[in-house]
Amino acid sequence: MFTIFGRTETDVSVSRHVSYDVPFVLIVDDEELLCREMVEFLRSRGLAANYETDPREAVAIIEREKPRAIIVDINMQGLSGRRVVEIVQGTGFNGGTVLMSGDPDAVYDANTGGANVLHVLLKPIPLQALERYVRGVLRTE
Predict the structure, then answer these.
(1) What is the CATH number that goes with domain 2-140?
(2) d(CA 34, CA 125)
(3) Domains of the chain: which residue ranges?
(4) Better-scored residue on pLDDT, 66 or 115
(5) Taking burial as the number of CB atoms within 10 A of a residue's CB, which of 9, 34, 45, 85 is the most buried?
(6) What's the mean pLDDT when you consider all of the chain?
């Protein structure tokens, strides 16, 4: 059992990858429970969403599946979120990009560091706010 976003859960049965024929958002964060909660919520609101916890695999998914938007944690093991964004933008990804972090200093640095992103969010992100950002990003593309 775990508590996330104020809800106590025994299981979050959300599959990581679902094939979509419509624009979708990919959430990239090494905190799997957080990813699953965000994806479950977005799907329950009628939005197409997937997640990946391995940032290197996320790069391959972004290149292969071309999500409309990505939401990427700044601080991850193995490959930072900023580096993920740099790599995929270097391969021609032009979808909406949102960075997130639980570290206020990382959020400040990302906001002032010239990253080519639409938003930088401080975690935990209220789910309704996440939905607004995702809907906005999907509309701007």
Answers:
(1) 3.40.50.2300
(2) 10
(3) 2-140
(4) 66
(5) 85
(6) 81
Sign of CA dihedral 22, 28, 33, 38: negative
User: Can you give the pLDDT at residue 11?
Assistant: 41
Nearest Cα neighbor of 46 from 141, 134, 140, 137 is 134
Tokens of 98: 């949102």
Helix ranges, the chain (H): 32-44, 55-65, 81-90, 104-112, 127-140
What the block records as the tokens of 28 is: 């990239």
Q: How far apart are CA 41 and CA 21, in angstroms?
A: 20
Report the alpha-carbon distance of residue 87 to residue 61 in Å, rounded. 12
67 close to 23: Cβ distance less than 8 angstroms: yes
- Give pLDDT tens digits for 51-77: 999 999 999 999 999 999 999 999 999
Q: Among candidates 60, 12, 17, 20, which has minimal Cα distance to 40?
A: 12
**Tokens 């309704």 belong to which residue?**
128
Mean pLDDT of 111-123: 70
Condensed to tens digits (0 to 9), the pLDDT of residues 8-51 reads: 444 444 555 565 567 889 999 999 999 999 999 999 999 999 99
